[in-house]
Amino acid sequence: MSATIDTTILKEELNTPYVVSPEAISFYQEYGYVKLKNVLSAEVLAYYGDVITDLVFKLNKLTKPMEERTTYERAFLQIMNLWREDETAKEFVFSKRLAQIAADLMGVEGVRLYHDQALYKEPSGGITPWHADQFYWPLASPKTVTIWIPLQATPMDMGPLAFAEKSQAVEIGRDVEISDESEALMSQSLTQFNLNETPFELGEVSYHAGWLFHRAGANLSTKPRKVMTMIYMDKDQRIIQPKNSFQKADWETWLASSPVGSVPDSPLNPILYSR
Predict the structure, then answer these.
(1) Would you state the torsion angle of the CA atoms of residues 92, 75, 209, 211, taken in this order, to the nearest 10 degrees?
(2) 10-31: per-residue pLDDT in tens?
(3) Of 9, 176, 191, 244, which residue is most buried, by most CB within 10 angstroms?
(4) CB 32, CB 165: distance < 8 Å
(5) What is the mean pLDDT of residues 69-81?
């Protein structure tokens, strides 16, 4: 990293409001996702991207050869809650700008962090099967959203995120974990929905609802597809009784086993933006 970088300017950008147009909010509410251009500058992505990348390779424990991995393991290296590992990563994860966009899109007064996760799809990394994130979350309300932030421009051969438009409103597949089975089942079940599968420019991000079905292609390029994500929930969200073993694990790991029926307000789930 260059010693001449003025990190004050980068921090200011992360906490400066972003004007979300009424059209973008309307699109998100109807289609279950939205892609927004020029949300973050190349300078912010380069500086914080280097920090995130260093953490991913420092903390990664998945070292099996690609041919020995499961479909899920081939999809990406997955490192959670970087904000608890490094103060600079925390600056990025706690960005008021990114949290404010989430609140605007969901139409809520404020948002809490569920957790962050880096998703690095290595060269020759496989597909990310169709799935809906909220299958894993013991949360009462559908007012949840994930921001997907590519740390580089992401052309089609790198496996950008793809969305089944309006699928957040259907019940099919809500009891299926991410797997070969979810890919096969949802490939058939989701034919009724239009697929948005397009490249991401540098600085472009997407937000998708917790129950929206999405997938990503394989990384056919020679470079890793580096992505950072944060999951936001309505600050008034409530915890429900876990419905499967994955939700039980999430309740214990990301919600500090807070009581069922309560607001998840432990130190693990800080409010990142409030009006």
Answers:
(1) -150
(2) 999 999 999 999 999 999 999 9
(3) 176
(4) yes
(5) 73
